Amino acid sequence: MVKPIVTASVLVVTAVPSVLQFFLPGLEPALMRDPAAIRAGEWWRPATSLVVQDSGVFGTLFNLAFLAVLGYLAERSLGPARWLILYAAGAAAGQAAGYLFNDPGAGNSIALCGLAAGLAIACEGSLERSVGAFYAVMLGASALAPSGGIWSWVVTVALTAAGFQLVVRHERLPVWLFPVVLAVVGVTLSALADLHGVALLGGMIAAWALTGKSRSTSQPTSLA
Q1: Are 71 and 10 in contact (CB under 8 A)?
Q2: Which of 47, 67, 155, 177 is the most buried (most CB within 10 A)?
Q3: In this predicted structure, what is the pLDDT of residue 218?
Q4: Average pLDDT value over all residues in the chain
Q5: What is the pLDDT of residue 224?
Q6: What are the phi and psi torsion angles at 33 (to 5°)?
Q7: Residue 3: is its pLDDT beyond 80?
Q8: What is the pLDDT of residue 144?
Q9: Where are the alpha helices (DSSP H) in the chain?
Q10: What percent of the chain has pLDDT over 70?
Q11: Are 75 and 6 in contact (CB under 8 A)?
Q12: What sign results for the dihedral spanned by CA atoms 19, 134, 8, 218?
């Protein structure tokens, strides 16, 4: 059984500065994604913004918890190399979107989109697929909550309940449903100029590429 070494390492690297930022108020602004600062030559910010969070205590705990869960399932099912590729794919797509949308911020949730895509597309187990789809649904729910209003919260609660059903009933649901959920959320968030949508789609492309490569290398070679 694969030990989640990569997951544990990335969790520690992310958790330490994410917690320290609450005691060092200047840490997040110094490391966050800032398109203007990046254009001025601070090229390291797309990387450092992954290890601090801009969503408060609850958002920080949410991201770290999902890093542990998604990371463990992805590393166990796909291995450390593909784990890193998917995590990097989500991060790269999300950071590119953040730069193009001129959207400053911080957090590893965009990188987690790559792992969610890997679980929903590249993993064989229905539980892993459902957890990846559940993360995507929760992103959609969190994108609606800040708008306020009763209908926003009704939709948010409904999406959250639907996400839990994906996990609870994962053995009864068709395999194709999980990547479809991911794609719908990704396209919807992208249309709303939410960089998580672009990150999900980028992670899906990487997951499909890895799945296709894995299938091609596993096919037996025919003898002439």
Answers
A1: yes
A2: 67
A3: 56
A4: 90
A5: 36
A6: -75, 120
A7: yes
A8: 73
A9: 5-20, 27-31, 35-39, 45-48, 56-78, 80-100, 109-117, 126-144, 150-168, 177-191, 195-218
A10: 92
A11: yes
A12: negative
Nearest-angstrom CA–CA distance, 187 and 205: 13
Q: Which two tokens stand for residue 215?
A: 């299938």
Residue 3 burial class via C-beta count within 10 angstroms: exposed 0-12, middle 13-18, buried 19 and up: exposed
Give every CB contact of residue 211 below 8 A, 6+ residues apart in sequence: 121, 122
Q: Which two tokens stand for residue 133?
A: 């789809």
Nearest residue to 89 via CA among 5, 195, 207: 207
> Which among 162, 141, 163 has a CA at the least distance from the CA of 152?
141
At 129-185, the pLDDT tens digits run 999 999 999 998 888 776 666 777 787 888 889 999 999 999 999 999 999 999 999
Q: How far is CA 220 from the centre of its chain?
A: 34
Phi and psi at residue 105, in whole multiples of 5°? 170, -175
| Residue pair 77/123 in contact by the 8 Å Cβ criterion | yes
